[in-house]
Amino acid sequence: MGLFDIFSKNKEEKLKEGLSKTRETFLGKIGKAIIGKSSVDADVLDNLEEALVTSDVGVETTLRIIERIESRVAKDKYVGADELNRILKEEISSLLLENKSAGINQFANSDMPKPYVIMVVGVNGVGKTTTIAKLANKFTQAGKKVVLGAADTFRAAAVGQLKIWAERANVPIVELGMGADPASVAYDTVEYANKNNIDVVIVDTAGRLHNKTNLMNELSKIKRVMNKIIPEAPHEILLVLDGSTGQNAFEQAKQFTSATEVNALAITKLDGTAKGGVVIGISDQFKIPVKYIGVGEGIDDLQLFDREAFVETLFERL
Description:
Layout: H1 8-18, H2 20-34, H3 42-53, H4 59-75, H5 81-98, E1 116-121, H6 128-141, E2 146-150, H7 156-169, E3 173-174, H8 182-195, E4 200-204, H9 212-227, E5 236-242, H10 247-259, E6 264-268, H11 278-286, E7 290-294, E8 302-304, H12 307-314
Parallel strand pairs: 1-4, 1-5, 2-3, 2-4, 5-6, 6-7
Antiparallel strand pairs: 7-8
Helix pairs in contact: 2-3, 3-4, 4-5, 4-11, 5-12, 6-7, 8-9, 9-10, 10-11
């Protein structure tokens, strides 16, 4: 039994609870799309398209799913509504798999570079600071030494909040205070990690989007200074998105992916929203794997994204 296996039942229950609003809305809309139908016709597909779009899956991803379903239905002389449920589940799961949104337990991964550097980006208010704290907690539980870098120096609250979370997670933090050069904080954090045999470095960054050019320059500078110590750093640029904002999360993803090389996603606050369909659409549209999802406010409520469990939970009542 692995380190996290003993929590698997609780994890599954938490996922079901966290996705309950999304599941009820999603299944309700799909149910209305196929109610009274004995076969899949143009009306069913039109209704299904509307159900997916209004579930925040996104227009482009919805059209891709509908096209795949049409192709599969065309191969068979008869496909009933019940069969459509299975096909829809398979196509959504397939899209997530194509974008490598699969459950890889990196917390227990012994093959990661050391130190493994994560640069966290995202606008203010999406749960960036708490996501960092939850990540630190997960890595610590897995026996890894973690240090946090408070490089969001444009808000005093950001530094203060991260210090509080660092204390709760019992991990060290490198901070130079409000107004300090963010790149200097990142440099000092990576340097600290090298000198103190740290396994994982998590660097917070500012969440401003009002001037994309400044944002791009700032993030590029942070990356460059870390490169001076570790050429491959950062190994992971994690974009944190608030799932409850629905289509606004798509726009944030667009802005940040154009500003820096995001290679992982964390989608938070899924427990308080019916807009969990954004997980599917954002992963597909931006071709970036979803690595973590937030299904609660507790420090243990950040989960590694498990594609199969997510889809099964989404369709559980069908």
